[in-house]
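User: Predict the full complex structure for these chains.
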Amino acid sequence: MMNWIRHLDQLLRGETTRIEQLRAEKFDVPIVGLAVMIDLLGLIYGACMGAFAITGSGSGHLMQIPATMLKVPALFLLTLVVTMPSLYVFNALVGSRLSFVAVLRLLISAMAVTLAVLASIGPIVAFFSVCTTSYHFMVVLNTFVFALAGALGLAFLLQTLHRMTIAEHFGSSMPVPTASELSVDETNPEANTSGPLQAVDGYVLGPHVKTVFHIWVMVFGLVGSQMGWLLRPFIGAPDQAFTWFRPRTGNFFQAVLDAIWHLVK
Amino acid sequence: MLSGTWLNDSRHANSPRAELSTRQQLVCALGCASFYGLVMGSSGGFTGERAFQPIYSAIKVPVLIWLTFVLSLPIFFTLNTLLGLRDDFAQCLRALLKTQMVAMMAIASLAPYTAVWYLSTSEYEPSILFNAFMFTIASLAGQSTLRRMYRPMIERNSRHRLMLRLWLFICAFVGIQMGWVLRPFVGDPQSSVHFFRQGAFSNAYIIVARLIWHTVTRASR
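Assistant: Here is the predicted structure of the two-chain assembly.
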């Protein structure tokens, strides 16, 4: 367990995704360990998100909290299961040489980063959950928080994909930037503390990295938001009884626009 | 600490004046915030039912400041890590704590003005505005310390500037709602004294959004 937490920490610090590290030992993260971490972090955020249900203005159903705690990790892992085969095929078609396991490691790492951001905004969301009377505000706030965490996760995905491609394409025979060139630059002290989201100096994104990334973002975004819609309710509308799932109507984007409209009306 | 002696490490070591431990500083800062709360709630005097308002406010002001701080810290930590600034985080945290303490000492030093204000007027709404003004001054004092302590870090790595702005944004976002939920601090002379106001658990941002919406729709008619 402590080992998995350490791996997550190294991912967040960007130690796992340094180019020299990627070239030396490939992208070595424990898939099961990160999946467990995603579950735990999702449970934390789910508790914060579902807390709205127990307040006077929520639905008042205690079951909403365990339901949301289970649904948040399920949302991410199910999205991964649904999209994984097609993402790998697109990636291979575009000409990337990443193996299936490498793609899986990459995607699960990006999800772990997303969930880490979500869980750390959790306390703020929980605070707003218990002291807000507006259901629609909670819908908009949670959507915004998910979008922010998702954006950071995708930034991680893009940069790591880029670094993996550099590490792969420029084998040991090519003049790749060495550790000292990359990270110890007297004139540019910022390079000394390169995080996982910073672009690598001296390399532009390859065309196929861009194509793969764009396809992934689209597939992830569409499937993820629709998966969220299928798994609702997460927050629990105050005027509806508790159910595990709602009937299959409408779609995600329409619902978010409705919530914003209700907020100002 | 206020004169900034602790900012300079060599002087810090030699100056017995500045050698307060972190715990002493925390206690001192909490005391300062409570003291301001006590004065803040005393607009109705110390007799009868009104005597509870200063006590409630003395509890609520430190809670407002520290709960906001604690809630905002996890995401600040994660974002710092993601931007590759984890090695500086201990220094960041020290800067943030000092800022809280300076702000609280500043607000305590402004308490006499609030007392004089209450003696000169008994109107409720101007008193709220006056208190808001005092809090603004104290937070500006805190921010100047924060910027001073962040300057060497920003020189080392400009990403710290982004994090500084984000910190102020997160704190403001949480702090505004926290202040709204914990009200009343001053105590409306027309209503009875409560720890939380009836219906206090609402959302500050929605109320502002509705106010703007109604103003706009009325103007467009």
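Chain A is about 70% helix and 0% strand.
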